[in-house]
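Query structure, 167 tokens:
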């Protein structure tokens, strides 16, 4: 089990944030280099349920490939499976967050409190606690810091014209 040491916390937090940043960079890539959109495809394959997309455009197969590559690289580098599953869980957390937003009738780019900024950390925390990798205090601290820093990072990315919205 992960004890709340600075090194464990920074490793957990930096891998999760790094994976999330890598996935968000795919959006920037598609925005500034439109031809890269040909490489990407939404994971819901444009399927609809009750007239609405299942997930939307933000969670893609290219993102899944990036997550698999990051997970494989982390495993090869560290040999520690709990670090290696983080990028995949981040991608899955984004997928579940996007699915949840569609159930609340939110479109791509619309804000949903608690889901935006924390979806990946929520799923990651649930899995790590249930698997016995981390205790609840460890996970709640990471979630709290994410809910403080993630909106700030999004606002800065918006000011740098890397995002359409400041949230």
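Result returned for the query:
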């Amino acid at each position: 089990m992960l004890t709340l040491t600075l090194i464990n916390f920074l490793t957990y937090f930096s891998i999760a944030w790094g994976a999330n940043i890598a996935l968000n960079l795919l959006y920037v890539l598609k925005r500034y280099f439109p031809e890269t959109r040909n490489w990407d495809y939404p994971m819901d394959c444009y399927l609809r349920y009750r007239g609405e997309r299942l997930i939307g455009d933000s969670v893609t197969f290219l993102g899944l490939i990036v997550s698999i590559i990051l997970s494989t690289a982390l495993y090869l580098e560290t040999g520690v499976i709990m670090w290696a599953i983080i990028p995949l869980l981040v991608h899955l957390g984004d997928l579940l967050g996007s699915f949840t937003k569609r159930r609340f009738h939110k479109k791509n780019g619309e804000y949903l409190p608690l889901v935006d900024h924390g979806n990946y950390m929520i799923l990651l925390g649930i899995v790590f606690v249930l698997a016995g990798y981390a205790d609840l205090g460890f996970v709640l601290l990471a979630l709290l810091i994410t809910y403080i820093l993630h909106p700030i990072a999004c606002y800065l990315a918006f000011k740098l014209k890397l995002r359409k919205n400041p949230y």
